Amino acid sequence: MPEIGEVARIVHYIREYLVGxxxxxxxxxxxxxxxxxxxxxxxxxxxxxxxxxxxxxxQQGKYFW
Length: 65
What we know:
40% of the residues lie in helices and 6% in strands. It is mainly alpha-helical and 65 residues long. It has three helices and two strands, in the order H-H-H-E-E. The chain has a two-stranded antiparallel ribbon. The model has no long low-confidence stretch (mean pLDDT 92).
C-alpha cells in the first residue's frame, strides 16, 4: 500500500498535467486482485475511460480518485 506522501504526489501530478485533458489511449494490465473483485476486466476499464476528460483529482488518506 502506498504512503500518504506518495498518494499526495500522484494527486498533485494528475492535477498539474492531466486535469482538463482527454484520455486518447488507456492501457491497463489485467490483475485479478484489482479487476476480478469488481467483476470487470482491464479491457473493459480501458474502453470505459478512453475518450473521457479528466475533471479533477482528489485524495482521502491513502486513496485517490
